[in-house]
Write a structure and sequence with these properties.
The chain has 13 helices and seven strands. The protein has 285 residues and is an alpha/beta fold. The longest helix has 19 residues. Bound molecules: nicotinamide-adenine-dinucleotide (NAD).
């Protein structure tokens, strides 16, 4: 059996956004190893030897449009990995980077994504429980354009901030993926769409997440995140490859029948929460 052929990336045009660091970089390195033509985009410089690299700020629609003009006419697999942490006052920016730009970019690429292509976004365990926030998310999903979504974010800034902008955006990613797996634009061409939802991972974002969780106090934030994700199972931080590699799998030919799924990669914290919620339901009758 030819393992490289099984992945199905040889000669395929793959776009990775957020390829300069962390999970996106790990995915890029594996894709190169598997023979893909990688077109990489990031705010920062991309080091791996990709086919072409582009510097782009994904919060800026004009820059995304410029990037779109430079990408090939045929795209096979899309990986949107970029994301930022939330801080007081940056709720709209978080919505732009962590959700609105993902949706806009993916939808703009759809006409050139090949039949049986695949799309995977990095969401987050922070989006866990997205179903319970559907009422808040649905009007955002109902917006049609980048500008409309931006307006919605500005109009709802206070509520977004109250509900933790990072989580609002991550829930929106998962909700969007669920809502579109069977949308004609995707399933009509057998284009799969999935998300991965990482738990605590050591990446370029770790310091920012700690500052964010500790409200400026990085050490307190670090302790809080460890308490939430690692203490309960005496566990360890994931590494970028723990996320980037499953993402490459999910967009590969081996996962050719998997669509509409959010793969939570947090060593099972979501499973423990699911069961705790079911048990709480039993107890309350
Ligand atoms: N690290 C974690 O614990 C964790 C947990 C859950 C989810 N995530 C998500 O994982 C994804 C990858 O992040 P990471 O942890 O590998 O962090 P990272 O900082 O190492 O990588 C993120 C990349 O996105 C790029 N980026 C950020 N804003 C951008 C913008 N406006 N335009 C273009 N590129 C931009 C950064 O330059 C960086 O290269 C993010 O979506 C993040 O929200 C991370």
């Amino acid at each position: 059996m030819d393992l490289r052929a099984l992945w199905g990336y040889e000669g395929k045009n793959c776009v990775v956004v957020g390829a300069a660091s962390g999970m996106g970089k790990a995915a890029t390195e594996l894709l190169l190893e598997l023979g893909a033509n990688v077109y990489a985009a990031d705010f920062n410089e991309v080091a791996p030897p990709v086919k072409q690299a582009f510097r782009v700020d994904m919060s800026d629609k004009d820059q995304i449009d410029q990037l779109l003009t430079q990408l090939p006419d045929r795209i096979d697999k899309v990986f949107t990995c970029h994301g930022i942490a939330m801080f007081p006052g940056n709720a709209v920016k978080v919505m732009l980077v962590n959700f609105i730009s993902h949706r806009y970019f993916i939808e703009a690429l759809l006409p050139r994504i090949s039949e049986k292509g695949a799309v995977c976004m990095i969401a987050s365990d922070g989006g866990y429980g997205w179903q319970h926030f559907w009422g808040f998310t649905a009007p955002l999903l109902a917006t049609k354009t980048f500008e409309e979504a931006h307006e919605w974010a500005k109009a709802n800034e206070e509520e977004i901030e109250k509900n933790m902008s990072y989580c609002v955006a991550k829930r929106a990613q998962v909700s969007y993926m669920k809502a579109n797996a069977w949308a004609p634009e995707f399933i009509g061409k057998y284009i799969r769409i999935n998300t991965i939802s990482p738990g605590a991972t050591q990446t370029g974002l770790t310091a920012d997440f700690n500052k964010s969780a500790g409200q400026g106090d990085e050490a307190a934030g670090d302790a809080g995140i460890r308490g939430m994700y690692l203490t309960g199972w005496n566990g360890w931080y994931a590494m970028p490859e723990d996320m980037g590699y499953p993402m490459v799998f999910i967009n590969s030919d081996m996962a050719g029948y998997i669509s509409g799924q959010d793969l939570n990669i947090s060593y099972g914290i979501d499973a423990s929460r699911d069961v705790a919620a079911l048990n709480a339901g039993l107890q309350s009758g």
